[in-house]
Design goal:
By secondary structure, this protein is of the alpha/beta class. The protein has one domain: pyruvate-formate lyase- activating enzyme (Alpha-Beta Horseshoe). The protein is 36% helix and 19% strand. α9 runs parallel beside α10 and α10 runs parallel beside α13. It binds iron/sulfur cluster.
Length: 359
Amino acid sequence: MKPWKPSRIYVEHSEIDTPLVRRLQSRLPEIPLQPVDDLRSAEPDRFDDGKQMLVAQRHRGTFLQHCPAGTSGLVCCNYLVMNFGSNCPYDCSYCFLQEYLANNPALKVFTNAGDGLTEVDTVLRARPERTFRIGTGELADSLALDHLTDLSCELVPFFAERSNAILELKTKSNVIDNLLRLDPKDRVVVSWSVNSAVMMREEEPGSASLDERLAAAAEVQAAGYKIGFHFDPLVAHDGWEEAYRDTVTQIFRRLDTRRVAWVSLGSLRLTSQLKALIRQRPQVSRTALTELVVGDDGKERVWRGLRVKMYRRMLQWLRDVDSCLPLYICMEPASVWEKTFGMIPSDRQVAQRLVGAEA
Ligand code: SF4
């Protein structure tokens, strides 16, 4: 997989003389920087056009937020998200950013990541008794642009020195060169979103293949990082049982389960608006063909019985590999936890199950 490159770069006028913009200029000298005063003028009309370009701008507002699961009556693992940019160069058919960023789709990187780390530092110092799990892969892929931004070179040393936080870098890329030069001191988990072979091949255009993701995972694991996997979204396509089992087999053929921090499972979940957007895509998507029902949080999912069946099958295959793997399901109510795991954990217990974190 070739590292991603934008076709054009816009820079907020006030940010031209910042380390990030100088880095972009030196890494992509063939692409002239276009200064803009009004960032709205850099926004394209079409969502897919936003993925061809890059905007470097200052972030105004808070960087750190609670994961949305914490506010909607679902069992929550007390996860925090930090946003150092928005949108992603890959084009997964089911991606919620198609709806969430419909009005501001330009792929953005923020020039003031240091302000975000100052914010995190304040939160960590205020609660030394609690261990936080913090990720950067909510509104963007954590590593897809790292060959251009070097963001990991700021994040990994910062978290390596903090005793009460774990950073998660979540990706579908194989952009790991910076990580291999850094020492995470056991405070960083690099995780890969994975799926069945047909889903990765046909529903996740632009991202790394399973082979590339696993080769990268093996390298970062050998370099001292813990790793994680997210089977999300699980989709009940034709042949799903064999296909997901095969992905589980391929992963753990190459990786040491003792250095796996967590494996999560999540079912396909769509709003009605996102479903409509998926139906407008040029390729017919399996995610739009799946029969879904509306849940209490307003999102559509496959019916509960099938979700539980898929989770149980996955748990069985994962526990066959290693019964000690830390496992959880994502964005699900207590009733689904009970049917899947035979118990309903508190939010705090879920967090402890993952990293021994005090929630
Ligand atoms: S990798 Fe993640 S953020 Fe990027 S398009 Fe796919 S689902 Fe969206």
